[in-house]
Design brief:
Blueprint: H1 14-29, H2 36-47, E1 52-59, E2 65-70, H3 74-86, H4 93-99, E3 105-108, H5 109-112, H6 121-127, E4 134-141, E5 146-154, H7 163-171, H8 173-187, H9 189-193, H10 200-206, H11 214-225, H12 229-236, H13 240-254, H14 259-274
Antiparallel strand pairs: 1-2, 1-5, 3-4, 4-5
Helix pairs in contact: 1-2, 11-13, 12-13
Length: 277
């Protein structure tokens, strides 16, 4: 498929449309099997050239569980699959949005991320540092606090998805959701039972608990997630000046001087086993 400029409406040729429908039919016919995730990823690939994909099971209060991946470069695979699922997910805007009850549908990173996320150390480490500049997500509701997330990553080639491609991915969301929903009904009981990691919220609540006040920890969490002073103030219902005061105090107590040092301290704390296995 020819890559469109960012603002060019996308049109599909008859041949491309036929390939998409054939791939979708294969995905539907295999939707109750363990191979369903491969087929739905292949169908998306017929529609839009996506560099890499990842499908995960998201359970309320637990770490996401990887179910399928394709296209993640080997040089970045350990960082994406080991660092992210061990601890990095705790600051991921999509994971946090899902934990907060994000409705099923299709979302682009810019629709979910906090206002300063693209300047955050998390974005630099877990997105740019692994060759990704943007992310899109299908979210599928299952049951009992469970969702499927289907991530589409772009960036290693330096080419971003056009607005037309994003609109096309959004338009096929009902079909993608149908295939993933069928797969989940027949294949995910064992995966749900194997979830072992502790509460996401508990990880945030315990970071710095020995030296920081509750409000200072809340401000630290907002900074780590990529919120600006203004956004933090709005989210917490306090003034920007109060946010700055809490930020200054928590930096003093943690003996750090910047957001980068706060991010490094949080990641080091996670690696030391703060999130219970």
């Amino acid at each position: 498929m020819t890559q469109a400029s960012p603002d060019t409406p996308l049109t599909l040729s008859l041949g491309a449309l036929q390939q998409w429908h054939a791939a979708l039919q294969r995905a539907l016919s295999h939707s109750e099997t363990a191979d369903a995730l491969h087929y739905v990823a292949a169908a998306i690939g017929e529609l839009v050239q996506v560099e890499s994909m990842m499908i995960s099971l998201e359970c309320q209060g637990q770490a996401p569980q990887l179910l399928y991946q394709q296209g993640i470069p080997e040089v970045h695979r350990a960082a994406v699959l080991e660092r992210y699922f061990a601890a990095g997910y705790l600051l991921d805007p999509f994971c946090l949005a899902v934990q907060s009850g994000l409705a099923e549908g299709f979302y682009h990173l810019e629709e979910i991320a906090p206002d300063h996320f693209f300047d955050s150390d998390y974005y630099k480490a877990y997105y740019l540092g692994t060759g990704c500049s943007e992310d899109s997500y299908y979210i599928v509701d299952l049951s009992q606090g469970r969702k499927l997330s289907f991530s589409l990553f772009q960036g290693c080639s330096g080419t971003r998805l056009s607005s037309g491609q994003i609109d096309l991915l959004r338009a096929v969301e009902p079909m993608v959701r149908e295939v993933l929903g069928r797969y989940a009904r027949y294949n995910l009981e064992a995966a749900t039972a194997s979830a072992e990691r502790g509460s996401v919220q508990a990880a945030f609540e315990s970071f710095g608990c020995q030296v920081l006040t509750d409000r200072e920890r809340e401000v630290a969490h907002m900074i780590l997630r990529g919120h600006s002073v203004k956004s933090t103030a709005v989210q917490l219902g306090i003034s920007p000046e109060t946010v700055r005061m809490h930020r200054k105090n928590l930096y003093l107590k943690l003996e750090i001087n910047s957001q980068s040092e706060l991010f490094a301290r949080f990641i080091d704390w996670l690696r030391q086993g703060a999130v219970a296995s």
